Predict the structure.
Amino acid sequence: MSKDKIFIFDLEGDGVNPSKIHCLVVAYQSDDGWVQYSTTDYNKMRSFFMKKGRIFIGHNIARWDIPVVERILGIKVSNKIVDTLPLSWYLYSNKLKHGLDDWGTEFGIPKPKITQGEWEGPLEGETKQQFIDKMLHRCREDVKINCKLWDKQIKDLTNLYEKADPWAIINYIMFKIDCARKAEESRWKLDVARCEEALASLEADKASKLDTLIKAMPKVPVIKVVSKPSKMYKKNGDMAVAGVKWFELLKEQGLDSSNSEDVSYVSDLKLPNPTSVQQKKSWLFSLGWKPQTFKYVKDSDDSGRSFTRKVEQIYIDRKGEKMLCPSVKSLQDKEPAIEALEGLTILTHRIAILAGYLKNVDDEGYLKAQISGLTNTLRFKHKTIVNLPSVSKPYGDIVRGVLIAPEGYELCGSDMSSLEDRTKQHYMWDYDADYVKEMQTDDFDPHLDLCVLAGFLTQEQADMHKSGEAKFSSERSLGKTANYACVYGASGKTVARSSGGKMTNEEGNKLVEKYWERNWAVKAIADDCVTKPCLKQNWLWNPVSKFWYSLRYDKDRFSTLNQGTAVYCFDMWIQEFFKRRPQITGQMHDEVILCIKKGFREQCAKLLKDSIHSVNEQLNLNRSLDVDVQFGDTYADIH
């Protein structure tokens, strides 16, 4: 890429959602390095952004600077852009913070500090020129940092990709960020009235549960510690008031009058706090609680010697939800208030979601499906609209149902069918084609299959479960636990722990053993993965996307390969339908949400189906990809 086409820029406006641009600073490369120029003139800014053939580089420019430029200057920026923020997410995934402030510290270029609201205009006693000079200084320093960052990034990308063109991964990441920008521009309509009503209802439910628990739980003693007064007597030899109180306290506590040590006693009893884990556990133990589920935490003693600490759990994870452990529920006959514990964590989570909606909704009643980063497999990290429970979960219909389509429109929800299973089968085909063919039969159930192999069920029982003649859901859940855990290299002990006390370590070991007998190809694929160290971390090569992915742990080889492939396939599908309809309201995992005019369902479904067909032709995987399409007025209707 020619250096004379590259321009790094930054701008300053009068707020987070600015109404005007104070200044623009641009850097370009000369023989002597980066050279800056600046302007406060809108026409010169328009001329800069409208000139063809340029590549614009900046930090978070895709989702902030460029939209601001287009809105305020009234132009459309059609040149290629490169955003150094998502590139930082990709290249340095072990870095906690990626802002220019943090990079400036690393490069020895401090980012100028400006207090809240200082960018709005001149402060008292400050001239307009002094204010502009301050904005220009801030902008210039930001551009200096970004020049250093881009120099580092293109060098690191070149080292990582060696002889391959690093612009392939740059273009891919920029496409992903463009998707995020389009979602933010589209926004998502919130039924504000229903959201407020639902929030009030859930908060009332939570308050009722807390009140029940406060009445049932024991009051908490307030411990007061009193030291012997330094002056027990007056100068005339009479006992001081402090001395009198000290001896009275000793008498009350049954202590000898000669005691000079600190005295600890219960000075008061305060109402219990039902959100305190320690207070809840103390209460449960007083009721005779015998914990069955534990979390194992790595710790170290004062000498630095490591050990594993066993922490009893009140709640267990069931399909992503915190449910009361059976050992706690068994106390309900003895103490009916235990019922109030059930669902308290779920209520708190749902309340936080609804409150987040109302906090972030704009004046027109819309939310933005924003992102906060990329995972190591290049999947979006979401914020604002994140971790939404399905409609089958408690209150899931509410938190999804308040996300709606505007009048005259409806939502289209389309997700890729069993995406990670299909990409897994693609990789397994060359190793164990017979097993892949078996997995593709209509009635294949991997969880029942594992239970049969491990001797938890007979084949006849598994067949009866499939046909509905009998139910072996409890046994099947053990196979499901093992299937999901083993992909990430879990041991038999870990699988047993994950079952919530439903299986022994021996049974966990048996499931793990049989899982790997059945899925030996997964280990073989992982062993054959190409990895290398670079940029102070390990990387894994993906033969489908032809990109390098950060590899956190060696045991994550297959999951990194498979998840990265799934994300790439998903993005290719979006890229295909964007060619004809570049709009997206949101995307979650392997699902897209579109907003379409009513009366166009057939055309929309055809576009999505045709697009995945095109992806299948391009990738030519060993397992074809497919999508499901649903329509409705609310998010609860479509997923």
